[in-house]
Each structure stands twice: as C-alpha cells, then as structure tokens.
Amino acid sequence: MTERITLSLWEPVQAHKALMHAWTHAKAWLMAGHRLVLEVRPERRSDAQNRRLWSMLKDVSEQVNWHGNRLTDSEWKDVFTASLKKQKAVPGIDGGFVVCGSRTSKMTKAEMCELQELMEAFGAQQGVRFKAWEGME
C-alpha cells in the first residue's frame, strides 16, 4: 500500500478527476480497516520562492548593519517573518526576548510573495542590492 497520495488541484474538471482517482485508493484503504486523514489547503511556497528568499536574506545579512548588529540569514528571516505576521515578542526565560511566530516553510505562495515584497521595501530603504535581480536588469 502506498502510504500517501498528494494531489495538485488547479481547476474544477482536473480536480474532480484527480479526487475520483484518489477515492479509489482511499476506499480500498478504508475497507481494509485503515483510518485516513484528508487535508485540503492552499499550495505552499515553491522551491523557486524558497531559493529567492534565501538569496535575499543573504544579501540583507551581508549589507545591513541593524542597530549595531550583523544578523545572520536565519535571524533576518525571523525579523521579516515577525514583521509580516505582526508577531509578538515576549521575555525569554533566561533573558532577552523570544518572538512568537510562524515558520516560512508553512507559508502559502501568496504569503511568500508578501514576505518578499516586505523584504524588497526594506532593502530599498537600506540600499540593499539584491544579487538575485542583477541578471534581470
């Protein structure tokens, strides 16, 4: 038995065919006594968006001194994500602050676009030259 079926749905007729195909597998598993979980959600970020994100984060980390600190790519990801999601920061157990937030790996394509637009605006304010764009000009 295949353990998982993943479907991409992009228009009603195609989606109906794909779901009917999936139903044949689901029905067999159910009849065999297996319990199943069905998840329907917006498509998550693409690999291309992820590559662009990390390229942009590297550019920002190399070019921006933030209040006297050089932040890593991952730290900048936390800063941008917290800003986009309007997340709160709470005191840490041993001092400092912890940002209560979400993960970019769970973002939809639309959310990833919003995050990268935020980074572009910030980069424009800070004079960041994004290398990912150099070949596009």
Outline the secondary-structure elements.
Blueprint: H1 12-31, H2 47-63, H3 73-85, E1 89-91, E2 97-99, H4 109-126
Antiparallel strand pairs: 1-2
Helix pairs in contact: 2-3, 2-4
Provide a compact summary of the structure.
With about 140 residues, the protein is mostly helical.
Report on the architecture of this protein.
The protein has 137 residues and is mainly alpha-helical. It has two domains: 40 residues, no CATH class; 90 residues, NinB (NinB fold, Orthogonal Bundle), CATH 1.10.3790.10. It is 50% helix and 4% strand. A two-stranded antiparallel sheet has the order 1-2. Strand 1 and strand 2 form a beta hairpin. The longest helix has 20 residues. The radius of gyration is 21 Å and the shape is elongated. The termini are far apart. 12% of the residues are buried. The mean pLDDT is 88.
Strand count, sense and closure of the main sheet?
2 strands, antiparallel
Q: How large, in whole angstroms, is the Cα Rg? A: 21 Å
Q: Please give the domain count.
A: 2
Structural class of the secondary elements? mainly alpha
Give unreliable regions as ranges: none
Q: What is the string of SSEs from the N terminus onward?
A: HHHEEH
Helix content: 40-55%
The overall strand count is 2
